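Researcher: Sequence recovery benchmark, item below. Answer with residues only.
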């Protein structure tokens, strides 16, 4: 069960499998990529750690150029399990953050994101899904994945909402950066 309020010092973002070989078949992928880049920029302004994964990069390709550029200096954790939690390197990276509130972005909502969320909740993590930063090959799969996860105890929200929730106060030094970024969201 997710805690009611997301705290910045307890948050970690997991960018799931946004890769060259898979993106062209994802529903609304152009808008999704723009939103993922905005999300990553926002989380970096707020100094929230980000873990990126790839699903079998040898077959599905690398993280897309735009998302990789937004992430900056990063090494994705390549996995073969659908749930990120099935990859020991992922769990080591997550546990090393010491954070228990996991924000999920990426693809596909009803497969890798869903399985990751369910396993994380079983392990006692609070899970937050940014609906406008997730997708699947088909819109219905995305919507059904979100519904199942909401019914299972994950919190479904939007990018703008979570950025301001983490910001908390307009006097925060990060306010101007987040405010400018939110003006770009359409």
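Model:
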């Amino acid at each position: 069960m997710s805690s009611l309020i997301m705290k910045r010092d307890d948050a970690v973002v997991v960018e799931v499998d946004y890769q060259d070989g898979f993106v062209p078949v994802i529903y609304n992928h152009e808008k999704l990529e723009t939103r993922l880049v905005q999300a990553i920029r926002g989380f970096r302004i707020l100094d929230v750690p980000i873990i990126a994964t790839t699903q079998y990069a040898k077959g599905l390709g690398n993280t897309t150029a735009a998302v990789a550029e937004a992430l900056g200096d990063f090494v994705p954790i390549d996995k073969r399990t659908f749930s990120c939690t099935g990859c020991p390197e992922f769990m080591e990276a997550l546990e090393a953050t010491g954070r228990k509130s996991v924000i999920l972005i990426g693809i596909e909502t009803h497969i890798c994101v869903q399985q990751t969320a369910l396993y994380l909740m079983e392990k006692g993590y609070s899970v937050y899904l940014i609906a406008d930063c997730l997708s699947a090959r088909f819109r219905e799969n995305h919507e059904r994945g979100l519904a199942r996860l909401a019914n299972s105890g994950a919190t479904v929200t939007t990018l703008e909402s979570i950025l301001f929730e983490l910001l908390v106060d307009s006097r925060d030094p990060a306010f101007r950066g987040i405010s400018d970024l939110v003006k770009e969201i359409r």
